[in-house]
Design brief:
8 helices; Alpha-Beta Plaits; disordered N terminus; alpha+beta; 15% strand; globular; 285 residues; two-stranded antiparallel ribbon; 2 domains; four-stranded mixed β-sheet
Length: 285
């Protein structure tokens, strides 16, 4: 069975205890930022990453019923699905083809979920990953609304937000994340983000030289002002085909201007109201 073939399953152990030592600043001289490069051009849709993620993190099954959207029973990322292999059937044109991608938290360089968290539950750990501390989360759901990628979900069991941790427990022990270790085609690559970006650019050049001029990087560079992703992708079609926004919104950018305009609008309305009532008093006299 495929479960028996996954190398990560042999490394399962009890959950690691909470980290007690102070968390250093991410991206320090001693610890580079860590992330994912997902190359969709070599993804075969085997779902080994999905299974390995659930197995290592002890996440519940999403059931065995197909959704009706191709060979998929998980549909999207959620509080219990931290890796999701998307299947997209492109029918028509010269030929039909598959688009497959293993989706995951983007671990944004400028994460709106982290900025919107009122309790400080969401932090950047020493590896530069966006990490939810479940013992501090109050389940308000602000992070869920703020994320433009639909990554986070709130558990009905504990009421808290959950998402990919980039296998923080494995990283602290010098191990690869479960999904990257189980990927048989190296579609999911893990390592220092800057090294992955250089490797990804070389991969795009190679594909272009081979005639695949549709290949490009999504999130390796700034996305229309949103910022870079520390978990980025090589795509072969429009981002919307992979359920990714072409220009993800950054809801907290420009909020000072919006607050100032709201305050100015309130003052203008207050002055107009005062003027209206003062004229009403004059007419009454």
């Amino acid at each position: 069975m495929i479960l028996q073939q996954l190398p990560v399953l042999n490394e399962l152990s009890n959950a690691f205890p909470p980290r007690q030592t102070p968390v250093p600043s991410p991206g320090s001289d001693t610890q580079p930022l860590m992330g994912f490069f997902t190359d969709t051009s070599v993804c075969i849709g085997c779902k080994a990453c999905e299974v390995a993620c659930k197995q290592w993190n002890q996440l519940p099954s999403d059931g065995f019923n197909f959704t009706g959207h191709s060979y998929d029973n998980t549909r999207m990322l959620s509080e219990t699905t931290w890796r999701h292999v998307a299947f997209k059937e492109k029918i028509g044109g010269e030929k039909s083809r598959w688009l497959m991608m293993s989706d995951v938290c983007k671990h944004c360089e400028d994460a709106p979920c982290q900025q919107s968290c009122p309790t400080g539950s969401i932090i950047y750990n020493e590896f530069g990953d966006v990490y939810v501390q479940p013992d501090i989360c109050n389940g308000c759901g602000y992070c869920i609304s703020a994320c433009p990628f639909g990554v986070l979900g709130r558990s009905p069991e504990d009421g808290r937000a959950h998402k990919c941790t980039l296998c923080y427990d494995r990283q602290t022990d010098g191990m690869q994340p479960a999904c990257a270790k189980s990927c048989p085609t190296a579609s999911i690559q893990f390592g220092p983000v800057e090294e992955l970006r250089e490797k990804a650019k070389q991969r795009v050049e190679t594909l272009h030289a081979q005639g695949n001029t549709q290949a490009y990087l999504y999130g390796a560079d700034s996305l229309d002002g949103y910022g870079r992703l520390n978990s980025f992708f090589l795509l072969e079609d429009h981002p919307n085909e992979y359920n990714l926004p072409e220009a993800p919104p950054q809801p907290l950018h420009g909020q000072e201007t919006r607050y100032a305009l709201s305050l100015l609008t309130g003052l203008v309305l207050m002055l107009l109201s005062a003027l209206f009532f003062s004229k009403g008093d004059n007419y009454a006299r």
